[in-house]
Amino acid sequence: MMHMTFYWGKKVTILFDSWKTDSWTSYLLSLLACFLVSVFYQYMEDRRLRFKLLSAKTQKSPSGSADLNSPLLFSKFTSRGGKWASRFAGAILFGVDSAIGYLLMLAIMSFNAGVFIAVVVGLAIGYLVFRCGDEDVVVVVDNSCACS
């Protein structure tokens, strides 16, 4: 029976039928996993936005100055097809980030209050650690909707 209201309890099914908790140990480990994935989501969002900023700077000034700051990202992207490669890499990052975000949403839809709190606290901690100083990246963001 699936819950349609928030409930407290150690018995929860998260995302898959095989991910069921029946003991306090498995429940707490599941909450820790939800917390860590939420923090990782904020990390990936930071990487995606910084990549978007760096690719925008590289497209405006192809002098190669961005290679000094991020040699792994732009060593191959500054060639003739650099704009396409940069947009493709950005799309890959966006897809991974969106998938993680939707999986977190589905985990919250288990309606277990512990899972909800673990995800929200993980998002907040991840934001504090990875994205709190995003003054330079905010300029690049076109839409604040999580799904666009």
Automatic annotation (TrEMBL):
Q: Where in the cell is it found?
A: Membrane
> What residues form the membrane-spanning segments?
24-44, 84-105, 111-130
Q: Which Pfam families does the entry mention?
A: Ctr (PF04145)
For this UniProt entry, what's an example GO CC term?
Answer: plasma membrane
- What membrane topology term does the record carry? Multi-pass membrane protein
| One term of GO molecular function | copper ion transmembrane transporter activity
Q: Does the keyword RNA-binding apply?
A: no
PANTHER family documented for this protein: COPPER TRANSPORT PROTEIN CTR1 (PTHR12483:SF27), SOLUTE CARRIER FAMILY 31 COPPER TRANSPORTERS (PTHR12483)
Which family does the similarity line name?
A: Belongs to the copper transporter (Ctr) (TC 1.A.56) family. SLC31A subfamily.
| Protein name as catalogued | Copper transport protein
